[in-house]
Design goal:
Length: about 475
Amino acid sequence: MNTPVTVVILAAGLGTRMKSRRAKVLHQAGGRTLVEHTVDTALSLATPDRVFVVVGHQAAQVKSTVEGRGVRFIHQTEQKGTGHALIAGRELLAPLGGLLVVYYGDCPLIPAAVLASLIDHQEHSKAAATLVSAELEDPTGYGRVIRDSGGQVLEVIEQKAGTPAQLAIREANVGIYCFQAGPFWQHIDELGTNNPAREYYLTDMVGILIRAGHTVDAFRAGNPMELLGINNRVELAAADRTFRERKVRELMLAGVTVEKPETVSVDDSVAIGIDTVIEPFAQILGKTKIGEACRIGACSIVRDSELADSVQVAPFTMINTSRVAAGAYIGPYARLRLENDIAPGAHIGNFVELKKTRLGAGAKAMHLAYLGDSVIGENVNVGAGTITCNYDGRAKHQTKIGNGVFVGSNATLVAPVEIGDGAYLAAGSVITDPVPVDALALGRARQVNKPDWARKRREKTRTKS
Ligand code: UD1
Ligand code: MG
């Protein structure tokens, strides 16, 4: 490709049919916002300094979503139509020349290959523009491509402005255009608002260019469903499903076993190694990386986490922003809430919650425990019901447990507190003071047995009644 390409993504509208307080392009499909998808597609065709996003409604949020990618922005403070969005960018865009690709920010599924062939077509054509069209079963709502008897494009007519004969045409404008920048900017001032919506229609540029003596090509797309914009939440769900299906299929072809793939959600940004098994209804989200030969149990949710090889996650487990080393076992019903670091071969069982905790190699917390702000050594055994009291109502405090410590069941560790290597905490203890290396700590009332007490009580109540 020789001609420089500029891409403009229109994303200033609210998207009324979403019935949302959030701008439409900020809704997510496949784990990314719609605007992120459309920007990422653009970046496969043009350098970031030639990718422009037209923002207006909730501009700050839309910008912050894609700013990191180095793209540029056009502010359209009042949304007076798709043509007006380009007028708003004239000063930035017109000097760039070359080819001007325009599409809408609500079309997250557009394949880069379709845009590449559109550009290729325009580059080899004498036409002033090429647009993508599709034959739709029901084109209601879309602009219609009007051609003459010889098949030459004459204009695009919007739904609201069409005559019954025009509206009977099934060839729809999908909303992807490639203009020669020269004639486009030369004629942009001819756009007007003489239409039922009182908007500047970008689609009017087709008729304008043709009346000025140019030709415009329309390029029929093979799979229109991928190209169409999302207008409501039903269409959003359909796009989300398509992304999920694509991702899971890609993973399976790359050596990951996915059971009942139609039930599993994996974000685009996730990487998974070969021979890992994903059980039904698992969700693997965000920037998660999973190694080889792992198992992600049914209904588990793993988000923004790193799991090394051979990690086993039993069903109904949540792992969030944590790192899990090779051979660890987690779940069922476990929760790694925030920034945990699990060493090789550690074992976390049911109803155990960890927060900002480092669990040493081979350590075990098998049942019913809360371990927060803790550093736990190697081969520690954390008994059932162990609680770290990390919060005193004002601040969080650390618990340190040395290597080889045995924490008896139902121990309560009041932080800040430190347990030396090899120590032994008696079951039911409330530990408030440091425990020396190899010591036994008992922090509970001594048991008292009163012989025959129960029998005597029973006899007393019997004589009363
Ligand atoms: C548009 C096309 C129609 C096409 C359809 C395909 C026009 C006039 N019509 O209609 O021919 O069949 O898309 O989906 O272009 N936007 C702005 N600023 C504005 C108005 C809109 O940035 O002032 C953005 C919106 O955020 C949206 C996109 O442009 O992402 C399309 O706008 P929308 O109102 O949905 O156009 P349609 O009526 O769908
Ligand atoms: Mg639309």
